[in-house]
Amino acid sequence: MTDSSGAGNTVDVVFVGRANIDLTVHVPHRARPGRTAIGSPLTANAGGKSLNQAIAAARHGGRAALIANVGADTWGYQITTALTDAGVDTRHIRLVPDATTGAAIIEVTPDGESYITLALSPATELTTDDIHRATASLGMEAVIVQLDLPPEPVTTLLSHRRAPIVVGNLVPHPDLAPRLLAELDVLVVNQHEAAAILCTTAGTPLDAAAALQRLGPRTVVVTAGPSGAAFTDPRGSGTVPAPAVPVVDTTGAGDAFLGCLALDLAHHTPLSDAITTAVHAGSHTVGHSGAHTPTPPHTRSPGRNDGSTLGSREWK
Asked: In which pathway does it act (predicted)?
């Protein structure tokens, strides 16, 4: 794809991962064995964690690029159009001939909880060549990579550092070498992903952040939905509460969080302030249906702007 914006070869944030179509249906309850649940009309929109994050960063005012592959099919073109419309650099979206674009099947229940099954398209998974080709010509302040991608492209990206700030997201692929976590400046996971990595659900999100930091990342952020987020870095640790908001659909809330967090980190915003902005972005998202919502007001924490953490905040 070409970059319709005419931007140069340097962006604020590059997102490396997957783009797919979200097939969403709202249901009164999940189908029970042997029964059929009647849902709303199906919607089909551009999605995928990295795509959602890139759009969030672009709508937050940043220069964002996405490295991903899609099929050269109707869904693939729908995805590239959505990215272009959002202002995301699409130069490194590869349309794979004769491949089917992946899809996420999403059920949303009345409480706003989303249940997601990802139908992967093996032919569109990123390769080492994709990483080399894209990063050789693209300058960036921060790069965000999905750690559940095949290990070869992730290893290539982490071993050949192309950005001052490297952020990892999701539970690592089982074949990814654990030592590579030490290459991360920031690891961002939700509390369920943290439990999967640590093989325990004991303790608070702040406990999980501290335990994950011992695996190698310099900074760890653990999101906790309506409870906000916990973090630890070399300066200290703390928590950031989330505002109380009505929940319509949780799809994409974590992606909005990470897209905004990554952009602020690329702009050298202090971590606690960046997390506060990200928490508000995620909270804003759950009040709307779908993964992409109008840009919320740019919110900053009221504290100091000297890089200090929010160590005095209690988890709520």
From this structure: Carbohydrate metabolism; D-ribose degradation; D-ribose 5-phosphate from beta-D-ribopyranose: step 2/2
